[in-house]
Amino acid sequence: MLDGAVSRLTRRRLARREPIRGVIARSRMTNLSSLSYAAFGGPAGTSRIAHFLDWLAARRGLGTSMRVLDVGCGPGRMFPAFRALGWEVTSMEPDLDFHEAAILAATAAGYEPPLPGGFLEIDAAERFDLVTAINDPFAHMLTGRDRADALRRVFRALRPNGVVLLDVPNFLWILKHYRAPEPMRAAVPGGEVHLRREHRVDFHAAVFTTVEHYDLIRGGEHHPSSKTHAYAMTTLPELVYHLESAGFAGLETYGSWDARDEERIEGSRLILSAVRPTSPRHER
Asked: Where are the transmembrane segments (predicted)?
């Protein structure tokens, strides 16, 4: 599973991690941030994404039996949907808490444990039919240099006619319509989770930061945790530039997971797909 998928550095990192059984046992007891995060996304959302991916695979002529690289898999909420589609999936997750939770989800879905790391650890050659980055992983590439490097690595990892799918926030729309986030709550087995978000914007670096404060309440006891996410405020023209510079062609944009044709970007999400051509113009 590891050969050719990630860099030697990542393989060393994986070798140093504790045995999978230990991770699973510890994650079940202490991974409060992943449990709380997962409470605010459920089967309805993953079902919409799965239907979109099934449509996209058919639209791009990828067939039904595919090798997929899911970068930034989070706690692994998409694994059951990938399994239902019959896809062979290699997953990666750089966040340690989410990585531990994803091990449980991958095991339950019958997949190999996800690899630690993200875009900058990809080191494969013509191995995958589809590379997905669902729910913002690419937005965590905070510099133009890292975004360019990430897409060059994705390009090399795809087979000819393979497809990359990027899903990032559309911050031009978000800032225009910005409102302070309101508190949220969600039910979990045996209790509920309260979520309070705060936002910070660094206009000089073009970085939008979200701090998520969770409070898991069970049996009258409070279990607080927090998670910080930094996002590059990348525009569609910049993404198109980086994709084309990496060698991709056939770019399409979609406004939501309900799209069933190419759409203009008019809302809070910026979803793109692009193809590695059979005869690329160049490969940097």
From this structure: none
Q: Could you give the 3-state DSSP secondary structure of residue 206?
A: coil
Both tokens of 111, joined, read 């997949």
Residue 143 phi, psi (nearest 5)? -125, 155
Report the pLDDT value the prediction gives residue 3, as an integer from 0 to 100: 45
- Note whether 170 and 158 are within 8 A (CB): no
pLDDT digits (tens, 9 = 90+) for 160-218: 999 999 999 999 999 999 999 999 999 888 899 999 999 999 999 999 999 999 999 99
Residues 6 or more apart whose CB falls under 8 angstroms from that of 182 comprise none
More confident residue, 5 or 197: 197
> First CA to last CA across the chain, in angstroms?
26
pLDDT at residue 19, rounded to an integer: 43
Q: Judge whether residue 39 has pLDDT over 90.
A: no
State the Cα–Cα distance between residues 223 and 193, nearest whole angstrom.
9
Q: pLDDT-derived band of residue 230, with 50, 70 and 90 as boundaries?
A: very high
- Its sign, for the CA torsion 171, 49, 34, 119, is negative
User: Could you give all domains of the chain from N- to C-terminal order, each with its CATH number?
Assistant: 8-172+232-275 (3.40.50.150)
Closest CA to 87 of 38, 54, 126, 127: 54
Q: Is the pLDDT of residue 158 over 70?
A: yes
Per DSSP, helices labelled H in the chain are 8-16, 20-30, 32-38, 43-59, 79-85, 96-109, 144-157, 171-176, 236-246
State the Cα–Cα distance between residues 251 and 262, nearest whole angstrom.
9
Buried b (16+ CB within 10 A) or exposed e, 12-35: eeeeeeeeeeebeeebeeebbbbb
